[in-house]
Prior knowledge:
Oligomer: heterodimer
CATH architecture of the domain at 16-124 and 247-306 in chain B: 3-Layer(aba) Sandwich
CATH superfamily of the domain at 16-124 and 247-306 in chain B: Periplasmic binding protein-like II
Helix content of chain A: 25-40%
CATH class of the domain at 16-124 and 247-306 in chain B: Alpha Beta
Structural class of chain B: alpha/beta
Distance between the termini of chain B: 77 Å
Number of domains of chain A: 2
Strand order of the largest sheet of chain A: 1-10
Amino acid sequence: MNLVLRAVAAIALLLCGLAHGREPSVPAAGGSSTTTLESREAYSQPSQALPPALLAGFFAGRSLFRQVWIIAPALDGEVDGLGPTFNRASCLACHLKNGRGGAPESHEEPLRGMLVRLSVPGIGPHGGPVPHPVYGDQFNDAAIPGVQREGRVAIDWIRHDEVLADGTIVELRRPVVSLAEPGFGPPGDDILLSPRIGAPVFGLGLLEAVSEKTMRELAARAKPDGVRGRVNEVWDHSLGRTVIGRFGWKANAGTLRQQIASALLGDLGITSTVLERENCPPAQRACADAVNGGTPELSEAQLQAMVLYHQALSVPAARTHDDPAALRGEQVFHRAGCGSCHLPQLTTGTHEQHAWLSHQPIAPYSDLLLHDMGEGLADDRPDYLASGREWRTPPLWGIGLTALISERESYLHDGRARSLIEAILWHGGEAQAARERVRALPAAEREDLLRFLRSL
Amino acid sequence: MMRWLGALVLSCICTFGAHAAQRVVVVTSYAQEVISRMEAEFTRANTDLALDVIWRMPRDAMPYLESEAGKTVDVYWAASGRNFADLAEQGLFAAQPDLAAALPATLAGFELSDQKARYMASEVALYGFAINPEYLARRGLPEPASWRDLADSRYRGHLLFPLPSRVGFAPLMIEALLQRMGWTGGWALLSEIASNARLWSPGGAFITEEVAAASKGVAVTIDFFAASAIANGAPMRFVYPDVLAVSPGHVGILRNAPNAQGARRFVAFLLSEAGQRALLHPDVRKLPVHPDLFKEADAPAFDPYAAPLPAGWRYDARRGAVRLAVDSAVFDALITAQGAAHARLWQALRAARSAALARGDAAALSLVARVQASALRPPIDEAQSHSPEIREGLGGRAVRGGTEAPPEASALSTQWQSAIARQYADAVARLEASGLLAEDWSSQAGVKQ
């Protein structure tokens, strides 16, 4: 190992928190990929387990994640090819500090950390959604000069109050999505829309390492309260076959490589070795005729660096152990039945590429399975096996740092929940019994529960 | 199901209730954090306007703005003084005297806005030292306060210095030091500082991350990198040194802006109190242009407007801008390309000076000074540094006066490097012949100054 790599390796170890924090004494949230850092950089730390030889790739991936992509042609040919249509010009724009995005607060505010998936009824090739014939599978509200943008997304909020058992009133809101100023005419009344905020991007290598066997066993095991849970089965372009889904709000991507390539194409308009064709539906001729940044625009080496970056981002350690209220809240969490789906403990299997991600005890607070979450959260847009009412259990690890890192709280797939209690109260379907137990909690126990969640 | 029918009703309400937002097209090279913060603040206060951001590095922005595509652009907003000066010379900006009127003309001897108000400073950044106090304390090292301090051999192995030919913010810092300290004296100091440093270039950990992680104790850098890291929890401090170097970020409205009114509103926002305050966000941490903001309770701790300055000194931006790439090439010839030979030279110079001092031998000290001056003589003198022929000889971006050295070594830069290598070898040979160096001087790990 040369001197530079040694130096970088030393830095990575230190960045992982040894220089900043204390030794973890609670079960490490991300196994050997856990950071004790509690600052706004807590989602941005490379895994201590990452072999030094891979650190250069990690930093290359970080650079691409931060890159504001350029309209082609450009002198900076390695990072050109934005669009022709797109949502945002960088990954960072929707995942500030690797955290979550959010929904607009008003009708006029543009989408900044959110996108809208599109389809029409039916089952597409490989069992996925059928893209809209004119607007494709994702609404792009931005375009390069000379290309028509698809329009603008406007979000309006419908609000109502929920009353808890102790009389506390919690205002909930749900979005109504409209496609304003459609660039290619009204899309028809059979269009299916699903707004999705950007999700946190740390710890994903560990989730990729959870074995299919484990997920199927989790789906098959008996659960209380009518909780079921099932795996999604999705097409993977790289592998050329159907795999189980684990990433995305509906678990509609099975590998990080597929997830990242899809996001690059759908969100930024960047083609890759996985998805080589620009995201230009047939009706959008100017889009199809626009100059691109190469074929593909993202090289295989760049894609691999981006995948490695996402695989290697550490998980913040839970801070439950030194907080009595949080420890009490942990008991409430399990008593209420939250842990049936938000599983606190999993063990990763064998990661095919990276042994350092393998066989790690982790605390994602997720079973990675699809669950019926009821009508209140339904988007009525099927995605492979996921019905319009089903959503993947999102991991809760690191969720307690949301307000600090993202400077706002936006939970659930569309960012409707502005606090953890709002998010809980939106749970329905298989989670209805757990939600009702939380609703019935005395105020002190409810606060303990929230304290526990904020300690993750 | 959120069907189009429902959406159509809402969009009709929107269509009849309000006009679609007008778009303001902005070309910039700012980082996403800066763009996001300003875009959010601006559009929140101007709901009838939307920003279309076109991102281009400074070297790539010029041909874009000069081309047909540039005619679709309303605003150029970036930290690239040379680009703004060139575009203004070409008459591509529309002067905004009313917007510029409230801005100070200079800061620490550096011109901020164009005197003809064709472009205005919208933020400023200064150079200095990111330090890890714990790292320095553990090694008994004082916190450096001046550029001269960094030349102290006690900092050997503890410094990071940005490589000007690879780090976009560094050439202006080098040029500012050269103008303030003189061509010969400036290069001598830079050489001595660099002898203590590892040269940093992008591609791995950020320069401030290395200091925060205690890989090194001090990094020469631009303030907002460090200030943002500190605001987000990094265990560092930032020191503004004795000689200040200022890098203003500018904004200008293109003469043919399709949305001139929207452009004016965006620029007015950037220069307003709200826009200037947005610079203080932890993810941005650039310094405002308005001096008044430094007097308020939540102001940055350091007020550059209050810093002392030699009377009458003024940074010559025009002369400086054209030789930034020349500076980078000279830096590479004197330091980067010499590698171990540069380190060996300084080891010999320090050892010889120590020996002369120990002997109380004035003649020997004088000899060491002469050898040092001879060894550190830049490959060109100051007059040549402004020569178009030199820029032509270096080729690439140097011809136009960009900030970076050309990617391929030119015959001229290779010639410089060879000449400097000979100077260093000659200097070491003279010192060895002087009898001031012990036989095993080159194997001694550290030589006290």
